[in-house]
Amino acid sequence: xxxxxxxxxxxxxxxxxxxxxxxxxxxxxxxxxxxxxxxxxxxxxxxxxxxxxxxxxxxxxxxxxxxxxxxxxxxxxxxxxxxxxxxxxxxxxxxxxxxxxxxxxxxxxxxxxxxxxxxxxxxxxxxxxxxxxxxxxxxxxxxxxxxxxxxxxxxxxxxxxxxxxxxxxxxxxxxxxxxxxxxxxxxxxxxxxxxxxxxxxxxxxxxxxxxxxxxxxxxxxxxxxxxxxxxxxxxxxxxxxxxxxxxxxxxxxxxxxxxxxxxxxxxxxxxx
Length: 272
Description:
Layout: E1 16-19, H1 25-36, E2 40-45, H2 49-61, E3 66-70, H3 79-90, E4 95-98, H4 113-141, E5 144-149, H5 162-182, E6 187-194, H6 212-218, H7 228-239, E7 250-253
Parallel strand pairs: 1-2, 1-4, 2-3, 4-5, 5-6, 6-7
Helix pairs in contact: 1-2, 1-7, 4-5
């Protein structure tokens, strides 16, 4: 790889990124940072047009190409058509970030069959189809960056998210296998696995009577929850041209929550 300037190692100028689940939270933060790196961004969302339009407007204000695509990536027939629409509007997809996810809290014995299917479709099969739709083209062109958003539940399972955790683990294994296959073709595939992040999805914990403060203090060795931008920074690192020799990795952005050990809830050092 021609290293070029320092800024060139991080530049996605002229590239096109597709980010699923990008209207809010982690996905929106990722779309913004990829735009800051110079990429045009296809903003996928589901029935969230106002928020998606705001993200697109922010990207266009940076001088970036951007468009929103309102489709459910869990549909069997959508991956190819979504990629085709994004490429028609913005150009060949060079960067794919799979951020759309669905988690349904229930103990295994209480999980409904339709909820199992919904989580399998969104958290695993959608990823498989999107990879099929974009990775061969990336390999032909000799450049590609794929990042899937995993979960701390891969390392620290939750009793009420057995299917979600299993699908995130399966997604990571899929990525690792493809990373081996496509490494010689300039395509890298990695996973970023967040811990507790302050997003709309867990806003119910911050409502009156919620347990956010206590939960956030004890969720990690950092003694706090993370912010979407902190996850986006890790994704940006994997997407950078300079990360061409990094593939098949899973990076936890979780304040050390993946590390076993006592958490004192205040970010300090526990006495020995």
